[in-house]
Amino acid sequence: MKLTTLISIVFAMLLSACGSSQPIPTPTITATSLPTNTPISSTPTTTPVPMINVDGDQVPKDLHDSSVAAFAHAFGIKPEDVGSLTSVVKTEAGSVVFLTIGNTSTQGYDNAGTPLLIGQQDENEQWQWSNATELNLLNILNKQREANHQQKLYVGGKFSDPFAQINQNDVDATFATEFNQAFITSDWWHQTEKQDNVFTLDAEINAVKKAKQHGMFVIGASILYPYSDFQYTYLKDKQNLTADQLLPILKRHIIGVMTPLKGQVDAWMVVTESRVPTETLNGLTYDPDNKIIGEQYIEEAFQTARDTDPNAKLIYEETLNSEPSGYYGSYTSRTREIVNRLKAKNLIDALGIEMVIDASHPVNIDQMIKTFKSYGLPIYVTGLDIDMSNVNGTDQQKNELRTKLYSQIFRAIIDSGVCNNINHWWAEKGNNGQLFDGNLQPTSSLFAERQVLFDLIK
Questions:
Q1: What is the pTM of this model?
Q2: CB of 130 closer than 8 Å to CB of 118
Q3: For residue 28, what pLDDT band results from cuts at 50, 70 and 90?
Q4: Domain 134-456 - what CATH class?
Q5: Residues 434, 436, 439, 444: is their CA dihedral positive or negative?
Q6: C-alpha dist (Å) from residue 217 to 99, 308, 399
Q7: What's the pLDDT at 139?
C-alpha cells in the first residue's frame, strides 16, 4: 500500500470519530478481591504440662516444685531437704487428694502432715491441682461443717489496710487467695470523718466492694473507738462538749459510715475498748465518750447501728478479756457487764476478743476456752497476734516458738465451739509479718495454721 493511500484512510477514520454524536463509553472498573489464605483445618496442639509422679499421683511439676520451695523458704531449709510428699485421702472429703509433708522436722517443729497441694476431680473427672491455701482448705472443711449443721469457719486479715507496709493491692490479692474473710480498717473515724461532718468514704466503699467480689465475709472495724477518735480527728478539740452535743455527733457518724454499705458488710464492730470515765492512757482520758455522756452511750450506739442496718451482726470488741482473771482477764469483768446490758436489749450479736498474745507468757488454753464459752455469745477473734518482743533467743528459736503457739492457739480457738471468725492483726507487716514475709511469701506460722485446718477435715 502506498503511503498516500494509508494517510487518507487514517484521516478519514479520525473525521468519522469526531463527528459521532454518541459519548465515548467510560470503562467500568470492577474491584477484584485479592486472593485470601484459606486456613487449613487442623486439630489445635497444646504443649503438654510437665508432670511428676508423687506417691502415685501425677502432679504438674512446676506447681509441685514451687510449693516445696515455699515450704522450704518458710522453715529455712533447702528444697531438696524437704523430702518426698505423701498422698493422703480423707474419706469424707469426696474426690480429693492431699499431698502432705512426710517426716520432715524443721526448727524443732513436727511438720509431718502439713498439706502442700490439693487435687480435686472436675466434672470431666480430670484431676485439677492447687496449693493448699487456707482458703482452699476452708472450702473443703466448710462443706463438711455445713453437712453436719455447723456454721462456716472464716479466717482473714486486714484488707485494703491504709497502713499496709507492702503495696496494698498486692496484699489484697494475696489475702484474697489465702483467706475467706476481710477485716476492713479504712472505716475508722480518722479515715472516714477526720473533719467535722465531712465524710470521706471512697476507701471504705472500694475495700468492701473488692472483698465482696472475692466472696469474702466482711467485717467493718471500729465505728467508735473513743481513745483513737479523740486523738486523731476534729474531736481532739472538742473535749469540752456536753452530752447533748456529743451524742448526736456519735449517732450521725454511725449512720454516715454504715448507710452507704448497708447489706454489704456482714458484721460491724460498733464500739471498741470502752473504759470507765476515770481510766487514762498516756495522760489522756481513755474513753471520752463515757466521760462526757456516760455508760448509756454504748447502748445508744448499738441501737443506732441496729436501726441503720438490721441485718448486720453487731460486735462489741475488747482486749485482755480471754481469761477469767489475771493479765489476760484485765477487762473480762467489764466486758461481761457491757455484754449483759446489750444482750438484755437484743442489741449485740457477737463479742470481739483481740487476742494479742505475749509469747513469753502465753494464754492458758483451758482458761481461754472456758472464758469464751462463759459470755453466752458467738466469739469473733478480731486481732490474733503473737508478740515476740519479750522473748529472748535466736531468731530461729523465736520463730519456732511462734509457730508452735499459732498451731496451739489457732486450734484451741476453733475447738472452743463458739468462735467461727478469726482475724489476724499483723498477718502482713513488711519484714515482720506473722503469716507473710516482706515478699508476701508464707511463713512457718501460716503453714502451721494450714495444718490445723487440714487436721480438721475428715
A1: 0.89
A2: yes
A3: very low
A4: alpha beta
A5: positive
A6: 28, 19, 30
A7: 97
